[in-house]
UniProtKB/TrEMBL annotation, chain A:
This is RsbT co-antagonist protein RsbR. SUPFAM superfamilies: SpoIIaa-like. Keywords: Phosphoprotein. It comes from the Bacteria. It comes from Allochromatium warmingii.
TrEMBL record, chain B:
The keyword RNA-binding does not apply. This is Serine/threonine-protein kinase RsbT. Gene3D superfamilies: Histidine kinase-like ATPase, C-terminal domain. Coiled coil: none annotated. SUPFAM superfamilies: ATPase domain of HSP90 chaperone/DNA topoisomerase II/histidine kinase.
Length: 285, 155
């Protein structure tokens, strides 16, 4: 038990809390909208902190238990802030603002110097643990967000479109790494089998850089697609891309390539023996 | 024409560590995403320095090849791209790419620069390709083990 913090909790709780909340409203919430219930959450955290300070469990090697009341309140608050894309310095900063206020209130209590030193050290240790915990929780949540986002991006970024009967279009947009190349190949092969595609147009307009690793991925995809009986028409290689590929010495042997998607579609329709003609062309003939 | 030996390479410690800098980019290479970032940042630097679109494309591809080499054959390294200035220190005359790794080194540099030769599963046209894409190229062993590749594109 720490009597100094017990006194703070008994006598000065309301005034420290108000001071802290006002400080946060002025310094932190100015930049981001103030969600409802935030003050209540901060108050629960505040009470949990004060209770822990007063009870003083294992002060010498204090570790914050994530399942304790304090751990859960802190986790919830940090989660919310991280999801709202606040900066980690704001989150940890709001904790440190509370520490500063508690230290000031402690010094105003008129205690013996031994008691002040001991209480300050304990305060320090607790807030070190809280800051570390908050920082780690913050980074964990952000990493999870990033993973989720990149997964959904991956979902979005590889559509295989059925352009016409037995003609597929695969527009590639963005960088092609191993993971994406694998996914593109899988999707394409499934689609080829499903639609019995005779031609697949591979549009590279949106691929920023064509280097050997991208070319290698593409070659594997093309080889696999051919085994399923489709012909590949590549389109959209930029003039710079073409020049770079030849300088690198990369050859896409036996692949039909057209500069634009329009020319590629014309080529694909030729292969399946179709054409795009004006509505009244027969009458004109 | 400047020879590649004339351009002094500052030691890594003194290099600008912030990622991206007005006239230089420094990036550690460990993952595939670092390779993408290296290529993107090299291209942005080239465009910022006023290189043509196709030259910027060549530089981006070269950066991607070299970074990928460091990642695949040496488990990682770093890429440094910087602007080269003339004697007045005002006009940009080129862009230099330096990629260094701490891997096992290249046993036979001449062979590594041969088209179609690869120790891994690659196409074997990375290094010779970079040599053709850029204007000056050097490959040297660093004392600590590993390889340092320098390549320059003049403007």
């Amino acid at each position: 038990m720490n009597t100094a913090f017990q006194r703070l909790q008994r006598e000065h709780r309301a005034e420290i809390l108000t001071d802290w909340l006002q400080h946060l409203a002025a310094a932190v919430d100015r930049h981001s909208p103030h969600p409802p219930g935030l003050d209540a959450q901060r108050e629960s955290l505040f009470d949990a902190v004060l209770t822990t300070l007063a009870e003083r469990p294992n002060a010498h090697d204090f570790m914050l238990d994530p399942d304790s009341e304090l751990g859960r309140y802190l986790n919830r608050l940090v989660t919310e802030q991280a999801r709202q894309l606040a900066s980690p310095s704001e989150t940890v900063g709001s904790l440190l603002a509370l520490k500063q206020r508690l230290a000031r209130a402690l010094l105003a209590l008129d205690l013996s110097s031994d008691a002040v030193v001991e209480s300050l050290l304990w305060l320090d240790r607790l807030f070190d643990a809280l800051s570390l915990f908050a920082f780690k929780a913050f980074v964990d949540i952000r990493e999870r967000l990033i993973t989720e986002q990149s997964l959904s991006l991956l979902e979005l970024s590889t559509p295989v479109l059925k352009l016409w009967h037995q003609v597929l279009l695969l527009p590639l947009v963005g960088v092609i790494d191993t993971l994406r190349a694998r996914q593109v190949t899988e999707r394409l092969l499934e689609a080829i089998a499903e639609h019995e595609a005779r031609v697949t147009i591979l549009d590279l307009t949106g691929v920023p850089v064509l280097d050997t690793s991208v070319a290698q991925h593409l070659m594997k995809t093309i080889d696999a697609a051919r085994l399923l009986g489709t012909r590949i028409v590549m389109t959209g290689i930029s003039p710079e891309g073409a020049q770079t590929l030849t300088k690198l010495g990369i050859r896409f042997a036996d692949v039909v390539s057209r500069a634009t998607l329009r020319a590629g579609i014309a080529e694909a329709l030729l292969i399946v023996e179709r054409r795009i003609a004006p509505l009244n062309s027969e009458r004109q003939l | 024409m400047l020879l590649i030996q004339d351009c002094v390479v500052p030691p890594p410690l003194h290099w600008p560590t912030p990622y991206g800098y007005e006239t230089a980019v420094y990036l550690p290479i460990h993952w595939e995403s670092d390779v993408m970032a290296a290529s993107r940042q090299a291209r942005q630097l080239a465009e910022r320095l006023g290189f043509s679109r196709s030259a910027a494309y060549h530089i981006a591809t070269a950066a991607s090849e070299l970074a990928n080499n460091a990642r695949l054959h040496a488990g990682g390294g770093w890429l440094y791209a910087n602007a080269l200035f003339d004697a007045t220190g005002e006009t940009v005359i080129g862009l230099e790419l330096i990629v260094e790794d701490s891997g096992p080194g290249i046993a036979d540099p001449e062979l590594a620069l041969t088209d179609g030769y690869s120790t891994g599963s690659g196409l074997g046209c990375g290094l010779p390709g970079v040599k053709r894409l850029m204007d000056a190229f050097s490959l040297e062993a660093v004392p600590s083990g590993g390889v340092r590749v320098r390549a320059i594109k003049w403007r």
